Amino acid sequence: xxxxxxxxxxxxxxxxxxxxxxxxxxxxxxxxxxxxxxxxxxxxxxxxxxxxxxxxxxxxxxxxxxxxxxxxxxxxxxxxxxxxxxxxxxxxxxxxxxxxxxxxxxxxxxxxxxxxxxxxxxxxxxxxxxxxxxxxxxxxxxxxxxxxxxxxxxxxxxxxxxxxxxxxxxxxxxxxxxxxxxxxxxxxxxxxxxxxxxxxxxxxxxxxxxxxxxxxxxxxxxxxxxxxx
Length: 229
What we know:
229 residues
């Protein structure tokens, strides 16, 4: 099923006062930050913007067209980031939780009982809140949902905003002389064969995740190798 609905949101509002949904982008990248997008609904809308679905199933042009519609439809939204240096230091799971917490803290605080639909099988928000002693605002019940961006319209909306922001960043970085050789406009920092060949030729940049192992390349920082795949 590739087309999300509001069925999960409708069910959620039976028990909760507001709903949040979050999705990440950049988890598997070899360079650049990871982003987490989050969208909030304070009441159940009758519909959602036409064309909203998992961001990976949309063309860049369609994602850009949906941006203003999603921002006008959601009661609140934000995108948080964790840098490649932070990912090297604390790992990707804690990094994603930190990025999500930053997004939540940047949003207007709402009262009541909240539910967060988190795309994927692992609750990285609660993990990071506990491990990093984060502010935990707002306090929400987290429910993980595998392929949530293909089931929940709110989650799909969050995925689109996160991907738009990160893709734009990587495209802008690729214009700078020191990063042109890595072709980030095309690969967005993910370890394609062309990207790995560029790292072999040029060496890792300050924006590469140096504690990760890359297929066909090995460790960028051998003393702190962490599998990428």
